[in-house]
Structures are given as C-alpha cells and as structure tokens.
Amino acid sequence: MPTPTATRFRDQRLDVWRGLCLVDVVLVHLAFAGIGFPEPLDSAVKHWFRFAAGGFVFLAGMTVATVFAPQVRRSPADRRRAYQRLWRRAALLAALEIGAALAYRLIDPLRYYPTSPAPFSLDDVVALVLWQRPGVTGGILLLYALILGAMPAVFEVWRRFGNLPIALASAGLYVAAVATDGAHWPRGEFPVIWWQPIFFAGFLSADVYASMRARPRLALAWAMGGTAAFMVAFLGYNGPSLGITIVAERLPLDFAKNPLRPGALLWYLAITQVVLAWTQVAWQRLDGGRVAGVLALLGRHSLLVYTAHVFTEVPVLEVAWVWWPSAAVRTALAGLDLVALVALCVLVESRVALPSLVAWSRELPWARLARVGATAAAGAAIVSTIWLHDPNTSGLQLTDLDPAAAPELRDEPAVSVEPGDAVSEEPSEVLSMNLEDAVG
Questions:
Q1: How far, in whole angstroms, is CA 135 from its chain's centroid?
Q2: Where do runs of H (alpha helix) occur along 301-406?
Q3: Which of 76, 161, 271, 425 shows its CA 20 to 30 Å from the CA of 277?
Q4: Closest C-alpha among 81, 25, 17, 62 to residue 287
Q5: Global pTM value
Q6: Cis peptide before 427 (omega within 30 of 0)
Q7: pLDDT at position 129, please?
C-alpha cells in the first residue's frame, strides 16, 4: 500500500491514465454503435486494443489504495472519516447509475433512430431503480458502488493481516464463480464477483506504480512483461482471424466478457499494464506537455465525462446515421465528440478553479477549439432531435436505408456481439450486451 506521503500531492499520472481510458471508451462506444470508422481503425478500436473497461476498474482500485489507505493507517477518527467518504461515494455512484439510465431512456424516443422500439413506461423506472435491468452504462457505475460500499470491511482485513488475504479472497471468489458459472449479480455486463479481480489487482499494485517514479528500470521491466502477456492474449483472441492459430490451439481461453471469462480477464489485466507502464516509461517526456494536459483535464473530471459521453454521442450518431458522410468525416465527428467533452471540463474548471488556472487554460488553442466544438455539438443535438425527428419511426430500421448511400451502415449489425459472448433471446439482454461492448 502507498505510504502516507503518497497523498500529499495529486498524482497527475492517475488523471492522465483516466483520460486515456475516457478517450478509448468514447471511440469504442461510437464504433459499436455503428458510426462506421474506416479500416483498420474500426478493427483496432473494437478488437485489437480496447482497454477502457478494464483500465477504469483497475485504476479505481489503485485510486482507492492511493487516496484512502494512508487515512486508514492513521487515527480511528481519520479511519472513520475515510469510511464515511467511501460510503457517500458509493451512494452517489449508485444514484448516478440510475439517474443516467432514466435520463437516457427519456430522450431516446426523441431520436431519429431510437435504440429501443418500446415506449418509456413505469416498468422501465421500476426495473432500473431496482437494478433488474442495466442502464446505459451497462452497470459499471453500480459495480464501483458495490465495491466501494464493501471497502471499509476490506480495509479492516488489510489493516490487520496485510495484502495476502485480500489477494487470496479475490482470486478465490473469481475461481468459484468460473467453476460454478454463478454469481451473475447484479444483472448487466459487470457482475461484481467476476469483475472484482481487476479492481483488487489495481488496489494491490498501487505500491508498485508509486515506486516506478524513482525506479525507471522497474517501469521498463513491468512494461515489457505486460507487453509479453498482452501478446499472448492478443494472439489467443485475434490470432485465428489473422491466420495465426498456434496460441489459440495451445491455450484455448474463453474471451467472453459477459461475464468476464479468464481470457478476457487476462486481456484486460495485460493491456492495462501495457498502457500504464509504457506511459510511465515515457513520463518524463509526457509530463507537462499539451497532450498530457488535455488527458489530465479529462481525468480530473472522469465521472462527469464518463456520464456526459453517453449523451454527447447522441447527436454525433444521429448526424452520422442520417447524413452518412464519408468515413473520414465520420471519424472527424468522433473527434468532435471528444472536443465537446474537453469543453465541458474547461467550463467546469473555469467556474471552480483558481483564476491562474483559468487564464492558463483559456490561452491554449485546444480550449478555444473545445468551445467551438461544444457549440457545434449543441447545434447538432437540436437538429437531430427536432428537425430530423420522425414520429412514425419506432426503432433503428437499417434495412430502410438506401444501400448504395450507406453500405457500411447496412452491413453493421444493430447489435454488435463479439465471438464467445453469450446472447440471450430476450431483446433487452441483446441491447445490454451491445452497451457492454460500448463501455470497452
């Protein structure tokens, strides 16, 4: 665990890493929603290098260890305050999961191509409030809420007995879930028992990443080891489609993500180490740079940005589906989505940050571009939900589109499911599977 001095300053690496995850989740979500990126970008985003879901969960564990472990070590009063903060955060995340789902369900019928053909009803409210149906996030915020709610008990075990019982309990729960194919709760794409190993891997590796600041050789060794593990996972999953079958034949792993099977667990753990450790290796060049500044800006407001992105993507997708411009323009629309999210962060910090920070951010070219992007996104939202709205449209009818005008969209299935994912015949389950893919 980190030492008490670890929280005396804000570790910008955590913000940059969260920013990287946010960029990936936006691209993955748009790709699986059918925006139609050109190849090989579409395959790279969907299948080759996606890491956002595992990265977010891993970083959540690392952040909890970095922020709260030093407080738990102190006096009983400090420990009590830390536990209260964890419970408040858990309640906020659970409420936000439900609120975002209800808001998205309310605006969905206004879209030219609604994602759900059924009208909004009281049954939707009950199902979402009682966690009987995953919301637009697929349930990832609820996963965080449940784990954070249990963290005071975990910290009490850790405080008395150290890391080993936490590691053994986490691994044991996962092995039991895989062996029995049980514990599929809560409903959605992130059942807590199946996903908690990634959280606790981040929790237990916080010390390692903290020490990488002063030990560049450790960062390089960690990055190389993560890259080797990721190559095994990559060839096991993508090798057969690329004509390379040796790994898949000798190590037949299941890469389904709902629930998180061993192959997918290896994938997310390995690629997360690749992203984090190689970023650490290059940190001297990245720290203080403009790219790192933008990523850190997103990462500082990761909960806001993650929640907002499910709404900012709506006008982007509406314009792409209705207009269906060239692949280059559709890719630029994804960039516009990211610019709008950066603009949102600039707006938030301009109201709450120090005047010097506001002046600094306003001088940057990307800040001006972000304000323009936010204005354009707002205009696109108005056009897509009012002018383009067809009250007779009850769902996304891809077959009604002109095949010559939108061949890529015609060929893109309404629900994207990767090989190995189990799909229920229930329509709501199929939609939920697509939302999980969109999360990353």
A1: 14
A2: 302-323, 327-352, 355-363, 365-382
A3: 161
A4: 17
A5: 0.79
A6: no
A7: 85
